[in-house]
Design brief:
Layout lengths: L46 H11 L12 E10 L2 E2 L2 E2 L15 E10 L14 E9 L2 E8 L12 H8 L10 H9 L5 H7 L14 E2 L4 E4 L5 E10 L8 H10 L3 H11 L5 E10 L25 E11 L3 H6 L12 E3 L3 H17 L78 H9 L2 H15 L4 H14 L1 H11 L3 H4 L12 H10 L1
Helix pairs in contact: 2-3, 3-11, 4-9, 10-12, 11-12
Bound molecules: protoporphyrin IX containing FE.
Protoporphyrin IX containing FE binds next to β4, β5, β6 and α8.
EC number: 1.11.1.6
Pfam family, one: Catalase
Protein name: Catalase
C-alpha cells in the first residue's frame, strides 16, 4: 500500500489478533451460523453471518474492459536533470525532471491486453506499461505499451479493434477470422501486427521488455514554449522474449509467470531498472516527413530524432494487497503535471476521456481517495460527496462552508497561471483521416531489420493464425503483406496456399490512400 493511507482512520481493535467483524465487534464463533437448535432453521438477525457473506458476495469489482490481468509494484524515478545533453529546463518545467538525483516515487502496472483477469501472462498480446509518478505537483500517469506503436490511429475505432481481438460474443472464443477480418480492412495495423507476431510479441517477463508512451505528448518550458515528445523505457535487464513453443510450455504450468517473476525478483532484492529517454520534435506538423508526428502507428526514427536520457526507474517494493493496489489503481492519459501537455494525437484525445470515465464506473466516483491513487501533493477541491466518500479535499484554514469559488470568505483561489504558447491551429470541422498515412513503410523497415530467425518466427506465427481464416480474409492479408515486402507476403502466402498470382489485380480498399511507392509496388504485383 502507499504510505498515504491514514492509520488514524483504521480500526484499532485487532492488535491482539482477535477476529472481529467489520463493525469492530469480537467474533467468538466463526464456525457456525446462528440456528434454532443444531439442525434448526437459521435466524435473520444473524448479523455476523450476513455481514460476512454479503461482503463476500461483493468481493469483485468489474475487471478492466482491457488490460484486465496485470500486476503492480512500486519504485522511484531518479532524474539526470538533463534531457540528453541539455538541461531539462530547456524543454520542460515539470519539476520531476529538473535536478540531478531528484527522486520521485512511483507505482507501475504491467499487464496483458485482451485476456480476462485470470488469463495467461505468456499470451501473444501487447503488454501494458503504465507508470504513476507521485510528483510534488500531483500525479503524472504515463500509460503505454511494450511495442512502441498501436493498431489504429483514431480513438473512434478502439471499440472495434478490441471487439475483434476479444472472444466472439456468441462462442466466447478468440477467433483468428474475426481478428484478421478487422485487421485486413485496417491497413494501418500492419506495422503493429508485424511487431506482435514477431518474437517480441511474447515478452519472457515483465522485467525483460521495453516500455513506450506510444502517443505523442508535449513538453512546456518556463517561457511557455512547447515541443512534441515521445517517451521510451529501456530495461537494464535486457530484452528477452518467448517463442510460441516456449510460451506454450510456460503457460501449461503457470498462467501467472510474469507477475511471479516480478514479485520474486523484488522480494529477493533483485530490483529491475529501466533507463528513461525522450525523443523531441519541434511543435508543428512537419510537412517534410512522409508520416504524421501525431500518428501512433508510427515510430520516430532514432537517427533523425535521437534518444535523450532523462533518468532511471528502479522497482523496489511489492504490493501488500493485490485487490487494493492492483485492481483499484486507476491510471489515465489525462493525468499530466505542469510542464507536460497533450498533443492533438487523435488517439490520445480519445483515451483521455475513456480512462477516467471507465474508472468512475469500475472503481467508483471517489477512486482518487483510495491510497494507491491519492496524489502525494496537497489536494484542495470543491468537489465532495458521492458513493464511498470519506473525507473532503480541504486546504488548511479553508472555511468548510465555502465549497464554491470565488468567495471572499477563506475559500480556495485559483493557482497562478503559467505561460503556454503552443502554435495556433486553424481548420474546418471535419471527420477525416490523417493525410500522410504511409501504412506500409515502417512495417517494411521492421521486417528488413529483423534477423533471419525472427522473420521465420513471424511468418510461422502469422501462418498459424491465418490458416484458420476464410479465403477472402487470407487473400487481403497476403495482399497487404506483399505491399509491405515481397518476401514477407510471398512466404506467408506460401504457408497458407495463396500465391502472388492469386492476389495480383486486387484493388486497394475503398478509401485507401497509397503513396507513389505503394502504387509502383501495386503495379509490380500486376
Ligand atoms: C487500459 C481505453 C489505447 C494502454 C485501458 C482501459 C481503457 C482503455 C478503458 C481500462 C482502464 C481501467 O479500467 O482502469 C483505451 C482507449 C484507447 C486505448 C479508448 C484508444 C483510443 C491504448 C494505447 C495504449 C494503451 C494506444 C498503449 C500506449 C493501456 C494500458 C492500460 C489500458 C497500459 C492498463 C492501465 C492499468 O494498468 O491500469 N485502456 N485505450 N491503451 N490501456 Fe488503453
Amino acid at each position: 500500500m502507499t504510505d498515504r493511507s491514514d492509520d488514524a482512520m483504521r480500526p484499532a481493535g485487532t492488535a491482539d489478533r482477535v477476529l472481529t467483524n467489520r463493525q469492530g465487534h469480537p467474533v467468538s464463533n466463526n464456525q457456525s451460523q446462528r440456528t434454532v437448535g443444531s439442525r434448526g432453521p437459521a435466524t435473520l438477525e444473524n448479523y455476523q453471518f450476513l455481514e460476512k457473506i454479503s461482503h463476500f458476495d461483493r468481493e469483485r469489482i468489474p475487471e478492466r474492459v482491457v488490460h484486465a490481468r496485470g500486476f503492480v509494484c512500486y519504485g522511484e524515478f531518479e532524474a539526470t536533470g538533463m534531457i540528453g545533453d541539455e538541461p531539462a529546463s530547456t524543454y520542460t518545467r515539470a519539476k520531476l525532471f529538473q535536478d540531478k538525483g531528484k527522486k520521485t516515487p512511483l507505482a507501475i502496472r504491467f499487464s496483458t491486453v485482451i485476456g480476462g483477469r485470470d488469463s495467461s501472462e505468456a499470451a501473444r498480446d501487447p503488454r501494458g506499461f503504465a507508470v504513476k509518478f507521485y510528483t510534488e505537483d500531483g500525479n503524472w500517469d504515463l500509460v503505454g505499451n511494450n511495442l512502441a506503436v498501436f493498431f489504429i490511429r483514431d480513438a473512434i475505432k478502439f471499440p472495434d479493434v478490441i471487439h475483434s481481438l476479444k472472444p466472439d460474443p456468441v462462442t466466447f472464443r478468440q477467433e483468428p477470422n474475426r481478428i484478421f477480418d478487422f485487421m485486413s480492412q485496417t491497413p494501418e495495423s500492419m506495422h503493429m501486427l508485424t511487431h506482435l507476431f514477431s518474437p517480441r510479441g511474447i515478452p519472457a517477463s515483465y522485467r525483460h521488455m521495453e516500455g513506450f508512451g506510444v502517443n505523442t505528448y508535449k513538453m512546456v518550458n518556463a517561457q511557455g514554449d512547447t515541443v512534441l515528445v515521445k517517451y521510451h523505457f529501456h530495461p537494464r535487464q535486457g530484452v528477452a522474449s518467448l517463442t510460441a513453443a516456449e510460451a506454450e510450455k510456460v503457460q501449461g504450468k503457470d498462467l501467472g509467470s510474469a507477475s511471479k517473476d516480478l514479485f520474486t525478483a523484488i522480494e529477493m532484492g533483485n530490483f529491475p531498472q529501466w533507463d528513461m529517454y525522450v525523443q523531441i520534435m519541434e511543435d508543428h506538423d512537419h510537412p517534410e516527413l512522409d508520416w504524421d508526428p501525431l500518428d501512433d502507428t508510427k515510430i520516430w526514427p532514432e537517427k533523425d530524432f535521437p534518444l535523450r536520457h532523462v533518468g532511471t526507474m528502479t522497482l523496489n517494493r511489492n504490493v501488500e494487497d493485490f485487490f487494493n493496489e492492483n485492481e483499484q489503481i486507476a491510471m489515465g492519459t489525462g493525468v499530466l503535471v505542469d510542464g507536460l501537455d497533450f498533443s492533438d494525437d487523435k488517439m490520445l484525445v480519445g483515451r483521455t476521456f475513456s480512462y477516467s470515465d471507465t474508472q468512475r464506473y469500475r472503481v467508483g466516483p471517489n477512486y482518487l481517495q483510495l491510497p494507491v491513487n491519492q496524489p502525494r501533493a496537497a489536494v484542495s477541491t470543491n468537489q465532495s460527496g458521492g458513493q464511498m466518500s470519506y473525507y473532503r479535499d480541504m486546504a488548511p484554514g479553508q472555511n468548510p462552508s465555502v465549497n464554491y469559488e470565488p468567495s471572499i470568505h477563506n475559500g480556495l483561489r485559483e493557482a497562478e497561471r503559467q505561460p503556454n504558447n503552443p502554435p495556433e491551429i486553424t481548420g474546418r470541422l471535419t471527420r477525416s483521416v490523417l493525410e500522410r498515412r504511409n501504412d506500409y513503410v515502417q512495417a517494411r523497415g521492421r521486417y528488413c531489420t529483423m534477423m533471419e530467425w525472427e522473420r521465420d518466427d513471424l511468418v510461422a506465427n502469422l501462418t498459424d493464425l491465418l490458416s484458420q481464416c476464410e479465403r477472402d480474409v487470407q487473400e487481403r492479408m497476403v495482399w497487404h503483406l506483399l505491399m509491405v515486402h515481397d518476401d514477407y507476403g510471398t512466404r506467408v502466402g506460401q504457408g497458407i496456399g495463396i500465391s502472388v498470382e492469386d492476389v495480383a489485380g486486387m484493388a486497394p480498399l475503398d478509401g485507401q490512400v497509397l503513396t507513389d511507392d505503394d502504387k509502383s509496388r501495386l503495379e509490380k504485383l500486376g
